[in-house]
Every structure is written in structure tokens, then in C-alpha cells.
Amino acid sequence: MDIRDRFERALERVQKAPRYTGGEMNTAIKKWEEAPLHFGFCFPDTYEVGMSHLGMKILYGLINQESWSLCERFFMPWTDMIALMKEDDIPLLSMESRRPLNEFDVIGFTLQYEMSYSNILAMMDMGGVPLEGSERGEKDPMVVAGGPCAFNPEPLAPFIDAFMIGDGEDVMTELNRVILQRKQQGWGREKCLLELAKLEGVYVPSLYQVSYDDEGRVTRVTPKGEDIPERVRKRVVTNLNDTYYPEEIPVPYTEVVFDRIMLEIMRGCTRGCRFCQAGMLYRPVRERSMDTLIHLAEKLQESTGYEEISLSSLSSGDYSCLPELIRELMKRMKDKRVSISLPSLRIDSVLKESLEETQQVKKTSLTFAPEAGTQRMRDVINKGVTEEDLLEKVRDAFHGGWNSVKLYFMDGLPTETTDDLDGIADLARKVVSEYFAVPKDQRARGLRVTVSVSIFVPKPFTPFQWAGQDTLETIQKKTEYLKKVLDIKGVTFNWHEPYVSFLEACFARGDRRLGKVLRKAYEKGCILDGWNETFRYDLWMESFRECGLDPAFYANREREREETLPWDHIDSGISKDFLWRENEKARKGETTKDCRKGCNGCGLQKWRGVCGYANAGCV
Amino acid sequence: MRMLAVFEKNERIRHIGHLDIQRSVQRGLRRSGLPVAYSQGFNPHILITFASALSTGACGKREIMDVTMAGEVSEDEFLTRMNRAMPPEMQLKEAKKIDDRHPSLMGSLRAAVYDLKIRDRSQAEILIRAIPSMMAKDRIVTMRKTKTKLAECDIKPLIYALRGEGCDIFATLALTERESCKPQMLTEALKAEAGMTDEVRMLVIREGLLGENESGELIPLERL
After folding, report:
1. CA–CA gap between residue A415 and residue A359 (Å, rounded)
2. Which CATH number is A3-233 given?
3. Could you tell me where the DSSP H helices lie in A306-417?
4. Where are the domains of chain A?
5. Considering only CA atoms, which of A479, A395, A477 is closest in space to residue A438?
6. Last residue of a domain, one of B102, B133, B157
7. What are the chain A neighbours of B30 within 8 Å (beta carbons)?
């Protein structure tokens, strides 16, 4: 029986076979022989998660659009499938032509969150690709990665040949061209790596030497050759209207997490929330024009048949002509029975008018992210939102017929006290009162207020990159406290287990030595760490111990201003001085204004013409 | 106006369940831009019915749907536009205009024709050899799985035709809203007759759906 027959047999025995079958609308793009370069796009999590991801759809379309390259998808199988694949000696196969991973010229992982790292190893292993760059030979694929976590690439350095830093649209094609030359001109891996390192925004970790001091802190990261840049500058797409965006995207048969059209209306955010890594990494803010968006929306609706379009960005409420855009989309989509939804609503920017328009088609639950319970704490994190803003929006929503509100908070933020935790409960209670203040015959029945509290994880390239995370004990105490104060009628409290956040904190700010821990943990059986049922905290701690590394050193340690951070050689455009200034202001509870109100000198102003709000003359 | 369409659910997507197939067809209709009718009410959906839900794991050569249209469209146009809008795994074979008073597909359905491809040749031989003796019996008792329990059931009157050839068992089995014989019930009965206890791997292909004409003959449902 050949591989594909064995795979078919496994499908008969596995749960949720549809996540492995492929054959979705808009995926039959080209035949293997049609293009010389074969790119295996790997999403290191399950199909349902991966198929909800916008970045993958963009790059999938982009690579397939080039006549000379072809892209097929790979996802992380669930444990039952992994067992069947092992039992029957089935390698990881692509969704499209069901070819093993190691038959591709280049395989690319998207790094969305740290807890998917073990899946990267698992996928390579199942796909017959040697795990570490140093173990791979001339016949093996080049392994590349990109996405937000690529900004601290160090923990993955042993496994990934080249990282793409920043916006992927332009660099993707340049990188593929180099790898095509490797294939066609028979370049050795070394030559290929050197060529890749010449591309702007590409970091080849094997070409850098890392030194540490006695305490284990990084002291220096030095390039191993003269042509190798000391710092790798992130790629920035300056005009989104000229940038590739797919007009056809795969439409899964089964329901996935986000089963709808995602229309990226802008990239970047000017708010400057101090905990938010995306808000720093995706700077500067860039908008797509209304014309482009309406064109894309219509094309995507025609090619997918989706019933819903969500406007996607870090802060959609800030889009400069949001009401006009929504009105125009509604007008064009109404007869097609397509609803428009606005995720990641910022409570200070939603217009009452657009609230009323949204419900014209469908009433969904409203989501607000005050992030912290007191004004003091919101000032610390620079979340420029007041309680009155929130309550006003909630009031409008309840009057408008909504009955379901989700509130997102974090605990463990720097300087947090019990007052701040009480503040979360107070806010929830006030939201409940707003609902009951609406006369009974004018409000929708069945109030549902969901309060979700996640655990703060300090991230690189944020003003809190020096901060220590709360210890597990502290977090557990805080959660118990929150359970008590959030025992309010009409309120559901969702909390997170602290262990995953602790490990996330280690890898988010980890150095190159963590590669060993990752490999060891994978070998011990750690996979699918983002899922409660498969997460093995004990095995992770065992791996740290056996590697002689202390997780608290990474997660809980407060760093000094002078310390060389493991990601200092990656240039995100945001200066370390700016981040430190923001950190100091945070400790004093001082806020920083929105960039739209004037340049704050984050560092991007040094790249002339990149940020529309930059003041070249400022600090 | 209603459009009756014959479509395929091919082998690759045989594990996709009926609800997902329904949604995929609806999205296909939306992609096609054809003038389909929507239900009234708060959550409008396309007015479409399927003659029979095809079980997860089975593929279908000639599955049938019935779409209510909001405007005139020719059969050819329906077919062309839908086939552009559907993935290769779910292409339409035929489209036929029917009158608004045409009886419901589900109510007219009588039987289905199956090709059961037994993966293992020797198993197939044993099962096929058991056909004559099984069919010679007055009653063929097998177990029917309901939502809550297993019940005994005589499938003899539900088997309209049965023969075997090579690795294939061809069967015409009753399929109505009231009673039906699933392919697995048939193979279980054949296994019992042959005294076989091993698991039988097979690919279930539903070749077509049958209705009954005025003279009491079973003919393809789409020809009624």
C-alpha cells in the first residue's frame, strides 16, 4: 500500500477526518509540475486554528500567484492522527497534493505564538526534515519562518535557517527567488544562507555568534562575516493599496474558528498600549483606501460565498473613514445577505451610528477590552480609555438591543495591587447595572456579561520588555481573589491557568540556549502546548532542569536597562530609548498621547517617509 | 421556479458530514450569483432541500438537491455557473427545472443504489459467496442502531437487488423516511451468513437515488 492509501486508511479511523482531507474551494490552484519552486506553508497548530489565520491566506495566494512558485498547506495533526501516522509510517502530507514535507524546496512556518514552537519540531520530524539546520543536508528543504514571534527568533535559532522580520509580502518573493536559484544552480546550503542574509529583513541565525556572561545574560551577538549585517532591519510595506491581497481564499468545508472574510482595513496602531507587542511591531499605521477595500470585499464575497465580513486590524475603530466604509459595505452587501462585523472594537472609537448599522443585519456579542480595572492601571499601560467611555458604549448597546457583552482584562501587570483587581469586579458590576437601568420592555432579555482575565506576559519590543512576570504563586493567589470578587449575578468569569503563561514568558524573551530545552521537551513528548488537554508542564520543567536552565531567569527576572537583550540585533524600528522612556512613564502612571495627535519619537522617524505621523525633528 | 440538481460528493471529501455539505452547497450558490430564494425571518437562509443525507464516510455519484429560485434561469446556465462556483470535489452533473408543485424529493424517495467496494479481495470473495444462501432465507435479521439502542430488524424486504463481482457488492436498498437499510446493515448480515468476524473495510459509493413511477417501477429520482 502506498503512502496515500495508508493515509486514506488512517482517515477512516481518525476523529474529525475533514481537517485532513483538503479539496476545499479555491485550493486547487496549480499542479506540482507547473512551477519549479515548491513552498510548503506550515501552520504549527490545528487546521481549525490555521485556517482562521489571515497571514497564511495572504502568503498562500501570493506564492501561488507567481508563475514560478507553488504553495501547499500543512497543519499540525491532532494526537489521534499522529498515533495513526506513526503506526502506519505515514509522513506529514500537504493538504493539496498529499506530498511529504521533505519533498518541498522550502518550508515556511508562521510564528503566531510561542506555545506553538514544539509543533514546529513535531511537523518537521513527521515530515522527514532533520530538526536542526546543522543536521540538514543538500537534499533537505530550506526552513524559514516569519510572523510576530520572529522578532525574537533566538529560541528557534537552531531549527530555522532564515527568519523573515516584519511584513512578509515583499520579502517572501525575494526569499523564494534565492531558494529557486539554490535549486536551479545547485548552490550549497552555505551559499544559499549567505545569499539569504543579504536580503533586507532576513535574519540567518547560524551566521551570528552569541556570547553570555557568568549569570547567563547575553553580552553580545556578533555577525560571523563582513557581509552579514549587525542588525537586521524589519521589512515595512509602505502602501497597502499597492500590496498584494488575495481576491480568492480557501473556504473550508467544516467550521473553523474564524469562518468568514477577513478584510484587513489597516495595519499598525497609533495607541501605544504599553503591554501590546503587536502595537509596536506593526508600526507605523497604514490604512487601505476605501476604494481598495470595497473592491476586495466584493471580489472576496464573490469568490467565497461567505455570509460575513469582518473588518480586521489592531484597532478598527481608528480607521479614518470607518462610518463611511461601513455604510458603503452595508449598502453593497445587504442584498447579498452578508453581515459586517467589527472585531477588536476599541471602546473609545465606536460610533453610536455604526453600532446601529451593525445590528441592521445581525446582532452579535459586543467585545470590549478595558484591559485593567482602575484608571490608575489603565494609565500605567497607556490604555487611553475611561470608565465613562466604556459605560456609555455599553449603555448604547443595551438600548440598541444587545444583551451580551464580553470584557477582556489582564492581571499581573506591572505595579498591580489588590485595588486594581477590585476594579475589574467594580467595572463588571457597573456594566450589569447599565443593563438593568434600561426599562424592561426596551432591553433584550437574558443578560450575559463575560469577564475574561488573561495573565500578562512581558514581550520583547514593548516598554515592559524589562519587567519580571508575576510568579506562579502570586498569579494563583490573584486568580483565587478574582474568583471571589467576580462572583456576581449575570457575570461569567473566565480565567487562565498560569503555567502556560509562565512558559510563554520564558520563550517570548528567551535566548538561543532555550533551543535545547525546546528540543528536549519535544523529545519527551511535548506537543500541542497551546491546548489544555495536551500541555505537559511537568515535562517542560524537567527539560529546563536537565538543560541546567532556570525558567524564572527568563520569566520572572527584572532586567537592567543596560542589559543586552537577546533580540537587540533585530531592528523593529522602535528605539530602545523610547521603550525605556515609556517604561519610566508607566511606573509614574503618566500617559503618552496617540501618535495621530503628534509624534512621540518612537524611533521610526529615522526611517524617513515610513510613518505618516513621524516628526523627523522630534526626539 | 425550482431547480433540481444532481451533484457528486467525491471520494476525497467523503468524510465531510451532511451539514457541512449543505453549507458548502449554499456557499456555492452564493458564489454562483444565481438568483436563489431566501427564507423570510431574522436569519434568512437559502431555500434548498436535499433528497437524502449521505452519511459521513460515504461518497455519492448522483446526490440530489432542490433549490427554490427567485428568478428565471436556464438549466444550462445553472449548471455552468454552479460548476464554476463549486470545488472539483463537488461538481454538478445535471440540472432540471421543476414545477413549484413538484412533490418533495424526500417524500418520493424509495431506494438507493450502492456500490460497496470491499478493500480486501479475499473478504470480498467470502462475502459475495454468501449472497445466494442469505437471499434464500425468509428473514435476514440484523441489528439496527438507533440513537439510543440496538434493535433487531429484518432487512429481507428492504433488499431490492443484490449481486457481487470482483471486489464490489452492488445493492439496491430501501431508503425512505420510514424505513431504510444502511449498507453497513447489509454487510453485517453477509458477514454473519459467511461466519466472518473480522472488520471489513469498504468504500461506500451511493450510485444514485430511486423513486417510484406510476407503474410501480423504481426509476432514478431525478427522472420522476
Report:
1. 40
2. 3.40.50
3. 322-333, 352-359, 375-380, 387-399
4. 3-233, 260-362, 365-513+549-555
5. A395
6. B102
7. 305-307, 336
Prediction pTM value: 0.94
Q: What is the pLDDT of residues A488-539, one digit of tens each?
A: 999 999 998 899 999 999 999 999 999 999 999 999 999 999 999 999 999 9
Q: Which set of grid coordinates corresponds to residue B31? A: 458564489
pLDDT tens digits for range A25-72 = 999 778 999 999 999 999 999 999 999 999 999 999 999 999 999 999
A166 lies within 8 A of chain B by CB: no
Q: How many domains does chain B have?
A: 2
Query: Which cell is A436 given?
Result: 438593568
Average pLDDT, chain B: 95
List the CATH code of the domain at A260-362.
3.30.750.210
Q: Which residues, 6 or more positions from A75, have their beta carbon under 8 angstroms from its beta carbon? A: A19, A42, A43, A45, A46, A47, A50, A51, A95
Residue of B nearest to A301 (CA): B31
> Which of B15, B19, B54, B200 best tests the A interface by mutation, with the highest count of A CBs <10 A?
B15
Same domain, B62 and B118: no
Domain that holds residue B196: 107-223
* Shortest Cα–Cα distance, B24 to chain A (Å): 6
Mean pLDDT over A249-270 rounds to 94
Same domain, B130 and B90: no
Our CA angle for B133, B138, B142, nearest 5°, is 80
Q: Which three cell numbers stand for residue A173?
A: 518573493
